[in-house]
Specification:
The chain is mainly α. It has 9 helices and no strands. The chain has helices at residues 2-23, 30-61, 79-85, 88-102, 109-127, 131-146, 151-154, 161-183, 187-197.
Length: 198
């Protein structure tokens, strides 16, 4: 399963779609840039989850039982749910060793937001020392800060199927926008990509 995700999906999308579009977004239409962004969103998921699936499988062969690291993150309806499903080992580490020591959600909403922003900015820098990764961390921090006022809305016991699908679709597109910062090689490339799409 992990090998299929990595080679047949992630590597195929990288070579045949993502790398071509991101190399020169100005030579593609807005729709093609959007397809490239969606393709990257699938690529990064298949790449990360494929590696961890392979690690889990190899560990099982050696008698070790590693926990699941991805739980269908693109089915999330909001940012809180997403970070409980995406790269669980990383998100747990960020929570336990950065967010909670900073004070977590103690001290009111402003301190909670500050702690979330610091945690996600450092999480962005952990991925790479560049402004695009800083912006990705900032973007994720802003989403997490904006989530609490809507938390009760998202946690209704039985939302309709149509509403669940709408929330999932909306949040998937917000995640994809974040991946643009993660994948772009420079800030001018981000603005060019967005200008072509818009």
């Amino acid at each position: 399963n992990g090998l299929i995700k990595k080679i047949w999906l992630a590597d195929y999308l990288a070579v045949n779609v993502v790398d071509r579009v991101f190399a020169n977004p100005g030579s593609y239409s807005g729709f093609e840039n959007l397809i490239g962004l969606y393709a990257y969103s699938l690529q990064v998921y298949a790449d990360f989850s494929g590696y961890t699936d392979m690690a889990i499988g190899i560990a099982l062969l050696m008698g070790f039982n590693l926990p699941v690291n991805f739980r269908s993150p693109y089915k999330a309806r909001n940012v809180g749910e997403f970070w409980k499903r995406w790269h669980i080992s990383l998100s747990s580490w960020l929570r336990d060793y950065l967010y909670i020591p900073l004070g977590g959600n103690r001290g009111g909403p402003w301190r909670t937001c500050r702690n979330l922003m610091i945690t996600m900015l450092l999480g962005g820098l952990w991925h790479g020392a560049g402004w695009t990764f800083v912006l990705w961390g900032l973007y994720q921090g802003l989403l997490l800060c904006a989530y609490p006022p809507f938390e009760n809305h998202f946690q209704q016991s039985r939302p309709s199927t149509l509403r669940r699908l709408g929330e999932t679709f909306l949040f998937f597109n917000l995640v994809c926008l974040g991946w643009l910062f993660f994948r772009a090689e420079s800030l001018p490339q981000v603005w060019l990509f967005l200008s072509e799409i818009l």
